[in-house]
Each structure stands twice: as structure tokens, then as C-alpha cells.
Amino acid sequence: MSFPSPASSALTAPVVETEGLVRSFGGRTVLDGISLRIERGELFGLLGPSGSGKTTLIKLITGIDRADTGTVLLLGERMPKLSMLQRFGYMAQADALYGELTARENLQFFASLYGLSGIRRSERIQAVMAVVDLLDHLNKPVSAYSGGMKRRLSLAIALLHEPELLVLDEPTVGIDPVLRQSIWKELLALRDNGTTILLTTHVMDEAEKCDRIGLIRDGCLTAVDTPEALKTRSGAQSLEEAFITLGGGERA
Ligand SMILES: Nc1ncnc2c1ncn2[C@@H]1O[C@H](COP(=O)(O)OP(=O)(O)OP(=O)(O)O)[C@@H](O)[C@H]1O
């Protein structure tokens, strides 16, 4: 019998593995025992109504917050762990940008946190700003950006260091349909090149593009599967209908 070497088992291990995550605020349980595996190279969507616990789960997975009980393994490492920050790209729901600095200065700041410098840094800044179509606005102060431009800059920052895992909390909110389409094209291309992507959404047509979806409601994962399998399982024509059937209500 042969056993996988540590290196090969690291490659086959899930990128995200949570077990029994519980998180409460002021005596109210917001996440109620979430166990989830996301495999390498997957584009995984967390779909749920406002307040269902998506952001809270993302914060536990990225180590920004700590669970009351349960465990998170990210790329095989027990979270929270500060050194893991370099291994994933994170786009929060609220843009964490410095308004008084230009977009270029913001990118340079985050590049230095990720250990990027010199020509590589300039190349990456050009490449990610091209993806989000902001090259013409590199030298503008972020305070002069619109809401949608700030979302796009936040996405560019998450992509800077070419992380093996991208965690995106509602990445396309406030972004117009044309650019949204081009961002999705880029996300699918990144996935095809092996990047694992975990994102949250309440938009059904975005959820349809994911390899697998986790339906979340009132802090519980009610179903995890491919969009097609979720529809088949619930006898639904659309994902929206499947969500209502499998999610256990009509609030979504
Ligand atoms: N720090 C906190 N203190 C108290 N309550 C919180 C805190 N963070 C989240 N909550 C509550 O937990 C619940 C889940 O919030 P969360 O932000 O995870 O939902 P969500 O599914 O991401 O919603 P949305 O789609 O609107 O972003 C909400 O009722 C929210 O008010």
C-alpha cells in the first residue's frame, strides 16, 4: 500500500474545510453548525437572502472573525492564522480603501503587504487594473471614484498577488451589467486556470454560473450541489424556485 506524500496530499486536500461552525452575537445564533468543503479549482457560490449569514461565514473562513465552536481549515491550515493573508485574495463587502490616496497608491500599499515589488509590482498593477477597466483612472484619488469604481478597485486589489484562493463578498454589487459580464468572464477564466473562488451573491443568474452552490438560510446550509442538481432535486424550473423549495420558505 502506498500513501500520498505530504506535497501531493496538500494538492488534493480541500481548499476550504469547515466543521460545525457556530457563531452567535448577543445570544442570537447567526451561524448554526456549518460544515462545508470547497475543492481546489472550484467556483463556489454562497447564495442566501440578506442577513442569512453569508458574510459572517466568509469572515470565519478568512480568519477575520473566530467561531464560538467548530473549525476552519484553509489550504490545510487551521484558521485564524495571520500568515495566511498572503495566500488568498479577499474582497470585503465594504470597500477597505484609502480615499485620500490615488488608486495607484492604494494598489502599491496592498502590493507591499503581499510582498510584491519592482517590475513585478508595476506589471501586476497594470494587469489587474486592465481586468476591471480602470487603467485610465489609476492616478485619481479614490475619494473621486464612484461606488462601482471602488468595488472594481477592491476586486483588482484581491487579484494583485495572483492568489490560489479568491474570496469575494458580493463582488458585483453596484457594477453595471456590461462590466459585470466582463468581470464574470475574468472570474471564469481564473477558475479555468486553477484558481479556487468562493463568492457570495443574492443574484440568481450569477449563482447559475457557479460550479456548486451552497444555499444558506437563517445560518444553516440547507443544500449544497451544482445548480442543475439543485433544480432536479427540487423539481424546479429555475434556481430561484429551487431556492424557495430547498431553502424552506419564500423570503429569498
Ligand atoms: N458583529 C455583529 N454583531 C451583531 N450582529 C451581527 C454582527 N455581524 C453580523 N450580525 C448579524 O448576523 C446576521 C447575519 O449577518 P451577515 O452579514 O452574515 O448576513 P449576510 O447573509 O451576509 O447578509 P447581506 O446579504 O445583507 O450582506 C444578521 O442578522 C446581522 O445583523
TrEMBL record:
The keyword ATP-binding applies. Residues 16-243 form the ABC transporter domain. Keywords: ATP-binding, Nucleotide-binding. The keyword Nucleotide-binding applies. It holds the Pfam family ABC_tran. SMART domains: AAA. GO terms for molecular function: ATP binding; ATP hydrolysis activity. This is ABC transporter ATP-binding protein.
